[in-house]
Amino acid sequence: MKIYTKTGDRGETGLFGGQRVAKDHVRVAAYGDVDELNSLLGVAVWHLEADGQAELAAGLRGVQSDLFTVGANLATPSVEDGGRESPWIPALAPGRIEELEGWIDAAETELEPLKSFVLPGGSGGASYLHLARTVCRRAERHVVTLSREAHVGPEWVRYLNRLSDLLFTLARLANRRAGVDDVPWMPNPRGAAEEGAAPR
Fold first, then answer.
1. Contact criterion met (CB below 8 Å) for 67 and 34
2. For the chain, domain boundaries
3. pLDDT band at 121 (very low <50, low <70, confident <90, very high)
4. What is the reported pLDDT for 64?
5. Residues 43, 49, 50: CA angle, nearest 5 degrees
6. What Cα–Cα distance (Å) separates residue 65 from each residue in 39, 55, 70, 167?
């Protein structure tokens, strides 16, 4: 099977079920963001494994598998939208969102309570988890946009919403386990900003 098919050379792509849409269609943007998120998690996993945080890396491999399921469903129009049912499109494992919530709760037992916003960054793994969180939020926004014009299962928005919370929490946890402190955001006082004070 060849990687290139030439069927998309005119700016269209095929969805699961046979429909063809423009490559900038909101549905393509939604599952494209999910694909980008999955790739970023692959980089985060590499850094976590290199830092000796195999437990976090293994859990995120499971999330990567989830994201293939999310993307496959977003790329499949519902029957109401002219699509065809397919036994090959997987469903999200029951209770998976609750499992993410449990992971968040367990991670927070190792963390100091948040008292301010923190700057994204820190260790390699944490930095990529922060970046993945922002892409996850973008994916969520595009799925919400898609849901206004097509039938989209509410579980996909819920999953991405919970996942972004998890990625933020795991970024903090990865920093803590790597011995790297979170850097709190220290906004300039309004008066200093108005006077043109140089940032410190």
1. yes
2. 21-79+92-182
3. very high
4. 98
5. 90
6. 11, 16, 9, 15
Q: What is the DSSP letter of 199?
A: P
**Torsion angle (degrees, nearest 10) of CA 74, 76, 80, 81:** 90
Asked if 77 and 89 count as a contact pair (C-beta separation under 8 A), the reply is: no
Model-level pTM? 0.86
Bridge partner residues of 21 (DSSP): 13
Whether 166 contacts 129, CB under 8 Å:
no
| Nearest to 83, CA basis, from 135, 11, 153, 3 | 153
What six digits make up the tokens of 94? 């029951």
CA distance 121 to 190: 25
| CATH (one of 3.30.70.120, 2.40.50.840, 3.30.70.270, 1.20.1200.10) for 21-79+92-182 | 1.20.1200.10
What is the per-residue pLDDT across 13-38, written as a single tens digit (0 to 9) for each? Answer: 555 555 665 566 788 999 999 999 99
> Considering Cα of 73, then 76, then 81, then 87, what sign does the dihedral take?
negative
Q: How far is CA 29 from CA 42, 67, 115, 167, in A?
A: 20, 15, 35, 21
Distance between CA 13 and CA 138 in Å, rounded?
21
